[in-house]
Write a structure and sequence with these properties.
Keywords: Endonuclease, Hydrolase, Nuclease. The chain has 257 residues and is an alpha/beta fold. It is built from ten helices and ten strands.
Length: 257
């Protein structure tokens, strides 16, 4: 099992500086967010990322675009563009030697009529099927994440039943189509993350570890992250914090526990 943290676009550190920080915390995995690469002044190439990984003995996962990206987009041209961005992330992940790519399953405003709800989900199925086949081609697992439910939008993976049904309808039986279990999203949506462990088991490749009070997706520190990760059994375990200080709080709290 690998333990690390997400390199969020909020962070000013370079990839190498972030890796060095994680090393001081006893962590050796980085989740590279596409959003971070999109806004970084000198974003490293996949080849540079591979060199950093080899120099520091760290592992990577990538997070595909999700801000302003929707695999269930009602507009076909925008849907194709989102698929292309996920495919590009899979290609970069393969070149960088990453172990997985995390992806969101799409959503639609709840105020839209039923026909739009159905169409969005059909778009998400098509998109994920295309992306999962490409993941199989490049040999990098594409891992569908449970998103948190929101009052205004229906997210196609927000509950265990919805996530399972979407995976079934995508219908790609491959070791390169897996699951990302987000503990904080489960709590904010109102169910226990163990429901996903029971349902998906070994198919869970990535765990996102953070906490909240059950009312919002706050990404608070989770000092019990190692105990939670041991219950999940994912290969890659990612602290999703909003600051380096919160990552330190997680590690410090875990040491006390």
């Amino acid at each position: 099992m690998h333990y690390g943290a997400s390199l969020d676009l909020r962070f000013d550190e370079s990839v190498e500086e972030f890796v060095e920080f994680l090393d001081t915390q006893g962590l050796s995995h980085v989740e590279i967010r596409r959003g971070y690469l999109d806004v970084a002044a000198d974003a490293p190439t996949p080849a540079t990322l591979r060199d950093i990984a080899e120099s520091y003995n760290v592992t990577y996962t990538f997070h595909a675009p999700h801000v302003d990206s929707n695999l269930g987009n009602l507009n076909e041209a925008l849907r194709r563009g989102t698929v292309a961005s996920v495919v590009e992330t899979l290609d970069d992940a393969a070149l960088a030697g990453a172990g997985a790519v995390v992806v969101h399953g799409g959503d639609v405003p709840k105020r839209y009529p039923d026909r739009a709800q159905v169409h969005s989900r059909e778009q998400a199925v098509r998109s994920l099927r295309e992306c999962a086949h490409h993941a199989d081609d490049v040999g990098v697992p594409l891992c569908l994440e449970n998103q948190r439910e929101r009052a205004s939008r229906r997210r196609h993976t927000a509950t265990p039943d919805r996530l399972a049904a979407l995976v079934d309808d995508v219908g790609v039986d491959s070791p390169y189509f897996g699951i990302t279990l987000d503990v904080g999203h489960a709590k904010a949506t109102g169910f226990d993350y163990r429901e996903l462990v029971d349902r998906f088991g070994d198919r869970i490749v990535v765990a996102h570890l953070h906490d909240n009070d059950g009312t919002g997706d706050d990404h608070d520190p989770l000092p019990s992250f190692r105990a939670v990760a041991s219950e999940i059994g994912a290969e890659y375990n990612v602290l999703e914090m909003k600051s380096l200080a919160d990552i330190e709080r997680c590690v410090r709290g875990a040491a006390v526990d």
